[in-house]
Amino acid sequence: MASGMTRRSFLASSVALGAGTVLSRGEDGVSFSTRLRKALIRGLPDEKTLLALKEAGFEGMECSAWSAAPAAAEAARRVADALGMRIHSVLRGWCNVNGPDADQVAADLDSVRQALRTARILGADALLLVPCKIGGGPQPWEFAYAFDPATCLVTRVVEGDNSRFEAYIAEHNRATETSRRALEALAPAAEAEGVVIAVENVWNNLWVKPDLFAAFVRSLGSPWIRSYLDLGNHVKYAPTPEWIAALGSTIARCHVKDFALNPDGHGGKFVDIRDGSNDWPAIRAALDRIGYNGWMTIEGSGGLSLQEQSLRLDRIIAGK
To answer: Whole-prediction pTM value?
Structure first.
């Protein structure tokens, strides 16, 4: 890193890289000004793993080994650097910040701090975190939030009578408040390590509409707390381009996944990328509109060969 450049300014310049420059061309000659980079999820990588990814056309990976020993993480980074590959983020996943046991919550927060340290050693600058999950709630097609934009506490989750969801609303608001406290407590560690905490709401019954999730992330007011958008997880709640438009510049990373809605639009199942209900050309255009220059990490689609996953991701990046 150049002398005099802080980690924060480095991250900001990285996000802006390529803005205004034509980097790819989609269908019908449509040009995109953003550059998207290809990755997959793996555990702590060795040379064989990284070589296989590189030969298939991937530029990097997301690491799920968030509790790796420092020496092992350092060794993995050296291998990646030698191959010209990048471990761009770390997947911490679920964190029990709304549990009833204060000691367990404290331990989980400490584990996130450990994951942030691991990410820094690996050379990653983002950490995927799901703060908590709750049960119950309306069906996906029923949700119609009303919420306080300052606190993001909800007053309604469906149109009309909400009496049957009183317990869910109370638990939703409690989870929002505990998540806020946890993320505020973790932000100093994220800044110290130079690693953004990218919050994901992955089928955890929280913030399941674009406007509320975007409002929650922005309400934290920290450049070290952003969003991790899975492009397939939320199709059953709202079309993916709506999520992209709402989250905008808060998006630190994207997972690439697909979901096939049932014919009536109520429910469905996960499928291999490009086999589901996602409108990929619209998604690519939406990412370009918000200026997303970043990683596209496939999650799932493990039944496809590395080469097939790479080819399908190439088509998505090209806007096809």
So the answer is: 0.90
